[in-house]
Amino acid sequence: MSESATTTQWVGRWGFVLAATGSAVGLGNIWKFPYMTGEYGGAAFVLVYLVCILLIGLPLMMAEITLGRRGRGSPVDAVKAVARESNRSSLWSIVGWMSMISGFLILCFYVVVAGWALSYVWKAISGGFGLGSVEAYEALFGATNANPWSLGGWSTLVIVITLAIVGKGVQEGIEKNVNWMMPGLVILLGIMIGYGVFSGGFGDGVRFMFAFDPEKLTAGAMLAALGHAFFTLSLAAGAIMTYGSYLPAKRSIARTSMLVAACDTVIAMMAGLAIFPVIFANNMDPSSGPGLIFMSLPLAFDQMPFGGVIALIFFVMLSLAALTSSISMIEATVAFLERHTGARRSVLCAWVGVVLWIISFFAMLSFNLGAGWTLAGKTVFDWLDFLTSRWLMPLGGLLTALMAGYVFKRSVIKEEVNLSGLGWVLWQFALRAIVPVGITLVFLDALGWLDF
Ligand code: PHE
Ligand code: NA
């Protein structure tokens, strides 16, 4: 049993930033944000979203990193350590449990979506595209989902890759891989945007995303922006707190968090500028959800020069984004088990992989055999998504803000975050007032008590 706090730290100057940005940049950026923006009022929505990132996402990210670094361990251990140092009940570590479990449960359905991405990389390589009609692509996506053996095979592959990386350790596995995956992702995205500029649809794409359309900016849209700010920054899912526990003491938590939040936002906007021009150049509708990426986009690529190569580039980019997020979702659990069992990381990862595989198997079946296994109209996949993004994450975020704003010793928090003057006052005001109010609104909305 090695019950002591972790001494592991990121090796490189950019280790934390790359890993945390890798966690943040995922499916949330590549299909959800661009679509929401077009749907909810373009530039007007972007403004509200930026305010949510700034007033709620950023302060919470700082709180997570502060607690993680102070407690030096998995969310459970870190929160417990800071509680002890503050003479507060160790029951607060329940918040750590919630985040850790939340990250695990998100991963259970995220691997299915990441599996789609990998399977489309394979289709791009093996000449599975070039189908030429919407119906054919609908059929292709349907067939991908209908066969539990192949869909399960792809999500199994995602699990294996994720745990192989995490199993090699924080430095040798996670850091080494994000070091090439994140630059790779940005380069591929750059190529996609360049392609979009020459596609003939660039103006329409920009207009769809950024036209200032306050009419569409309903209260519901604002709450959606708030909810998305959570998911997109990987908050309250154990990821950022655990990565923060490896952050060297001399790094500025405020500046690092701003950088990660800014990169996440810029990449989300760039993703829109890569996707929509291609869609509009082919006179297609910017449909929502999986349809946009797995049906409309491949068809659009078909009809364009170098479409086959560009499709490959796009799905490789999507897979990289998904993998750098998936490794971050499981690191908390692995770090926790490592400390409390003393077993080797690689061995633990094998076991974690098995449990993950079993639960994700049921999420995967939601698209074929288990499509009818519903509770209140939701499949296993839907439930995992709903429970985590509507409940566990906001609740974990609220409690995290309260811990860093009210519950734990000010001197401890202040020393660790290393802020003074206006910076400290603003941060504390956000944690004490803005975040609780914002999240309470999200809850009231989830309960259906706000009638938008
Ligand atoms: N931030 C990721 C995205 O936008 C999702 C994520 C959530 C990653 C929680 C880690 C933890 O896709
Ligand atoms: Na994101």
From TrEMBL:
The keyword Zinc does not apply. The chain crosses the membrane at residues 12-31, 43-63, 94-118, 149-166, 178-198, 218-246, 258-280, 304-327, 348-371, 391-408, 429-452. It is a multi-pass membrane protein. Its main location: membrane. InterPro entries: Na/ntran_symport, SNS_sf, YocR/YhdH-like. It is found in: Membrane. CDD domains: SLC6sbd_Tyt1-Like. This is Transporter. It comes from Larsenimonas suaedae.
